[in-house]
Write a structure and sequence with these properties.
- This protein has three helices and nine strands; from the N terminus they run E-H-E-H-E-E-E-H-E-E-E-E.
- It has one domain: Rossmann fold.
- Strand 5, helix 3 and strand 6 form a beta-alpha-beta unit.
- It is globular, with a radius of gyration of 16 Å.
- By secondary structure, it is an alpha/beta fold.
Length: 179
C-alpha cells in the first residue's frame, strides 16, 4: 500500500514516529553507554517499532522476539490468566529492554519483566511506542515511551488486527478494528 494517508484519520504521522524513535534511541544509547542491551521485541504489535528502535540505538544491541500467549481460566465467577511465551531467551546477566508497540493493561509486560528478573537479568527496562496508562491493571510504568494515547483503537506501523494495515508508516484511528 502507498504511503498515502488521505483515507485515514492519522493520529501520529510518519515523520513524528521517525523523529520520536530516533530520540528514544539516543536516550537509550546514553543510558546504556558502555553496556550491551538485549532488545526483546514483543510480537505482534512491537515488530516494526523494535526494528526501527534497534537501528536508532548506537551502543551494542542485539534483538530477539517473543510471542506471548494468554490463556484464560474460568472457575465460577473468577477468571485468571496464564501467560506463556516462546521462544525462551537466555537473560542471565544481561540488560533487557522489553520493546512493546503499545502498552495497555501491562499484565503481559509485567509478567515478562518479573520472569526476566527472576531468571537473573542484570536489569529490565520497558520501552513502548504507545503508552495507554488509562488501561493499566498492574503497577507498571514504561521506562521509555514514545507517545501517550487514549482509549481509541489504533492501527498502522505494526499495530492492528491481522487484516488491518499493519504495513502503513503512520498510526491511524481504527474505530471498527477487531483485535
Amino acid at each position: 500500500m502507498a504511503n498515502d494517508s488521505g483515507n485515514y484519520q492519522v493520529v501520529i504521522p510518519e515523520i513524528e514516529l521517525r523523529q520520536r524513535i530516533v530520540s528514544l534511541g539516543r536516550q537509550i544509547s546514553e543510558d546504556f553507554k558502555g553496556r550491551s542491551i538485549l532488545c526483546v521485541g514483543v510480537l505482534e504489535n512491537g515488530f516494526l517499532f523494535a526494528a526501527d528502535l534497534v537501528r536508532a540505538i548506537t551502543c551494542d544491541v542485539s534483538c530477539q522476539f517473543v510471542m506471548p500467549y494468554v490463556h484464560e481460566i474460568h472457575e465460577g465467577n473468577v477468571t485468571t490468566k496464564q501467560i506463556f511465551y516462546a521462544p525462551e531467551i537466555d537473560v542471565q546477566g544481561r540488560h533487557i529492554l522489553i520493546c512493546e508497540g503499545i502498552l495497555s493493561t501491562g499484565q503481559t509486560t509485567e509478567f515478562l519483566r518479573r520472569n526476566f528478573q527472576a531468571r537473573g537479568a542484570a536489569s529490565v527496562s520497558v520501552c513502548s511506542l504507545l503508552d495507554r496508562e488509562s488501561d493499566r491493571r498492574v503497577d507498571l510504568q514504561s521506562t521509555y515511551w514514545g507517545f501517550r494515547v487514549g482509549p481509541q483503537q489504533l492501527a498502522g506501523f505494526g499495530l492492528g488486527a491481522p487484516a488491518l494495515e499493519r504495513n502503513l508508516p503512520f498510526i491511524f484511528a481504527a474505530p471498527d478494528m477487531r483485535a
